[in-house]
Write the structure tokens for this entry.
Amino acid sequence: MFSQQVAESALEATAGALCPTNLRVGADLVEVEQVASSMARFGDRYVRRVYTDHEVSCCRGEPSVVAAGLAGRFAAKEAAIKVLRPSDARPDWRSIEVRRHPTGWCELRLTGEAKRLSDEAGIRSMAVSLSHEAGLAGAVVVAMCDRPET
């Protein structure tokens, strides 16, 4: 009997480790043309309202390349909002920043209201993956929380 209880406890602990309930996942797709249109219509006003200086500096080149890079970052911001789950107004777009490292991988940096929502949810780490192909940009954000959702 004792060994069965130990085995069941070990199984429950393993299942919890394999299928944690303290994960949050958000995903989003953006048409690159929508970002290109916003840039053409609103210019710098659009870019400065949505993207940080770092994000803009990472998206250089021909207009189509810039639009694809910014569209990926917009998708990441939307995916992060899905993870943060605001109950009221969304955080400022620039409070969710995609930071690109020299080796090419990206991470999210939160400030302001986005950081407050993250702290409130007990989010201890976030990972982001961006991609663009065939006129679409996509992103997935995975967050690990200190505690399961209640």
Remarks:
- The first strand starts at residue 23 and ends at 31.
- The chain has six helices and five strands.
- The helical segments are 2-18, 32-42, 44-50, 53-57, 63-84, 112-121.
